[in-house]
Design brief:
The complex is a heterodimer of chains A (244) and B (270).
Chain A lengths: L2 H16 L2 H21 L4 H34 L1 H6 L5 H30 L8 H22 L6 H6 L1 H4 L1 H6 L11 H9 L1 H14 L5 H24 L5
Helix pairs in contact in A: 1-5, 2-3, 2-5, 3-5, 3-6, 3-11, 5-6, 5-12, 6-11, 6-12, 11-12
Chain B lengths: L3 H13 L4 H13 E12 L3 E12 L3 E5 L6 H9 L6 E6 L2 E2 L9 E4 L11 H11 L4 H14 L15 H13 L5 E4 L8 H16 L3 E6 L2 H4 L4 E6 L2 E6 L1 H8 L4 H8 L3
Parallel strand pairs in B: 3-8, 3-9, 6-7, 7-8
Antiparallel strand pairs in B: 1-2, 1-4, 4-5, 9-10
Helix pairs in contact in B: 4-5, 5-6, 9-10
Classes of the chains: A mainly alpha (244), B alpha/beta (270).
Amino acid sequence: MSIRRTAATAGRVLMQLLHDPRTIALMIVVPCVLVTLLKYVFNSQPRLFDNLAPMILGIFPLLMMFLVTSITTLRERKTGTLDRLMTMPISKLDIVFGYAGAFSLLGLVQACVVSAVALGLLGVTVLGGAASVLLAAVLAAFLGTSLGLFVSAFATSEFQAVELVMPILMPQILLCGLFAPREHMARFLQWLSDVFPLTYSVDAMRQITAHPTWTGVFVRDLLIVIGCAIVALILGSITIRRQE
Amino acid sequence: MVAIVPALEVSDKRLLWPVPPVASFAILLTVMTNIVSVRDLSVVLGGRFQALRRVSFSLQKGKIVGFIGPSGAGKTTLMRVIVGRERVRTGQVTVLGFSAGAKELRSRLSYMTQEISVYSDLTVHENLLYFARMRGLKGKEALAACREVLRQVAMTEKSGVLVMNLSGGQKQRVSLAIALLGDPELLVLDEPTVGLDPVLREQLWKLFRELAASGKTIIVSSHVMDEAERCEDLLLIRDGKIVAHDTPGQLCEKTGTKSVERAFLKLAGA
């Protein structure tokens, strides 16, 4: 693996996005609008919104980056550019980490804007501070990218790549504790929730909301998110085959 | 100890000369000039389709070689094996002295796939610069290489244009330009000139001849027979088998025909 080639790949992926301003606008504006919408959904229960908004901040980057990565890498597999890259003097990790770097950076930009809206304009209070929120959000973006990259191997069309959100991410969103506290779920769903990586991303946000300093659970959550992301990246690089 | 050493030396000499010196020199010469050598290669795709059936041939350095045959004959599969994208399961394939797919080959050969393998949402220049960097070129060296290959495919004035806004033929030339980056010794080009207008085609063939004259080996595939006449060495491929391997002139002479197309039809038994 080479830093130079990884950086070149990350730069290339970001450049592709820069040529598509509409996608960037969608990625940044839509989450802001949705968070605002949520505030007025819970118009009469502001406390509830205060608790939910940070969790949403952990879900958006993951969902968005999952979608964008699975489609871009699927295109790469389909259009022959990956074929070409695989005959060149590079490591597969240059590609995989290039993607992870590019989309984590984009996730950071997204998190900065959405957090500014949520914490600034909508008055959500997070005891742990904005910096911790951004950290957790970037790691959620990293996880989303890694999962997207891995899952793109199982899609043969862009249609399927989008549809994979339903079986892969929807259960994780349903069981992460956003809709109902995890303790109230059926026992087997709690187990399932325990093995879903998204749960830890959301839990990290919950920890920051409730505690002014980093708790042990928060650190554990972040480490689990990083671990899962790295495992998904490695699995993703295995699905990119040098030889068929 | 003293007694054993001379005995070893004798057996070493035997190992070195299992064949008469003249013959071994001939073998050495073929290994050196043969850029690709394929022996008994069979490829089954997806566990069912027999794409290549016991193919054997060798290619010499500095030639323009044509893989000619109808669609589905096995040309692309053969190219994918040579560039290392398709694993060799039965048979032997040696490229530039290494087995196909070896790591050492990645900086020495280049591959242009049949589909236009270029990022359509990047400009021509951004595409070239990215692939130049992936080939290991740095800074000014990479920029110079990009300029040079753009000139070679006559696309200099389109440098800043997004690939998605180019015509089909222009995209194809960008794809070819990428394959020229990094000064590869062996260029494997899958249908590089198909669909281009006659003037452009002539320009690219001139480029191929220049590259071959400078010692590079170029493998070009085509299902258009008039392209075959321009190659120095021809492999006619049909149903995963090599029907003929010859120069265009020899091929016509042997089959008693006037064009490669006729020769192919005669060999195919049509």
